[in-house]
Structure formats: structure tokens, C-alpha cells
Amino acid sequence: MKKSFSLSHFKKIAFIVCLLLYNGTNILRAQVVYDVTPSVDAQEKERKSKNKTSENKILGYRIFLGFSNSRSEATLLLTKAEELFSSTYGSILIYDEPNFKVYVGAFTTAIEADAAMPLINKSFPNARKLRMNIPNPSFENPNTK
Fold this sequence. Notes:
The protein is α+β, with helices and mostly antiparallel strands.
């Protein structure tokens, strides 16, 4: 006994396949909705705005000397850096939660920062060059006019 598919069987199978494909496309159109509390959303916006480069900043280099979560320890490091480099490169203490970080210089190019490294490494052997936002040297403060 040979079984053969008739046209009606083929139509039923085709209908079932089409129905399965249609339901599969509905599954693909699913959306994910995040339920974010306003405080988390506000913190995220603050973090993004903090990382934006303002018009009076450019991407340059600073030489990182060290950090501490204690302001007094970081200030001691800053004082030592100011004694050594205040006349040539200058130094700065930046609070980057949860640490206070000490940097020397504000170099527009990597070559300038590399040239300063041997002198700085004599006093701070663990110093390293970092790419970060620095004040734009060509920016004129409109309040000084």
C-alpha cells in the first residue's frame, strides 16, 4: 500500500508552516523595557556630563604620580611635586571618587610628556603618562577681557 500526499494534505502542511513562521516573526519583535529609578537615571546623566569635553578642554597628557583615598596623604605627595616642579610643569590634585590623584604638567602632545618623563622619574620612579582632558592653551577666558 502506497501512501501519497494529496493536494489537501499539502495545503494543510503549508498552512501550519506559514502559521509557525508568522508566530516566529512576532517573537522577534519583542521589546525590552528597563524600569530605572529616577535616582539611578540622574546619576547616569551626571556621569555622562562629567565625562564630556567642554569647549575649554582638549585631549592631552598629564603625568600621574600617585593616589590615595586620604586627602592628607595625597596633599603630601602634591606638596613634594610642587616643590620640585612648580616652576617648570606645575602639579594638580584631582578628586576622582574615591581617590585623590596627583598629576604633573598639562602637555598637548605625547612628545612633550615623554620629554618631561626622565626628570620626573628621578623623583617619582612609578610615574606614568596618561591621556586625559587638559585645559586648552589657546582658550581665552572671556571673563579676563
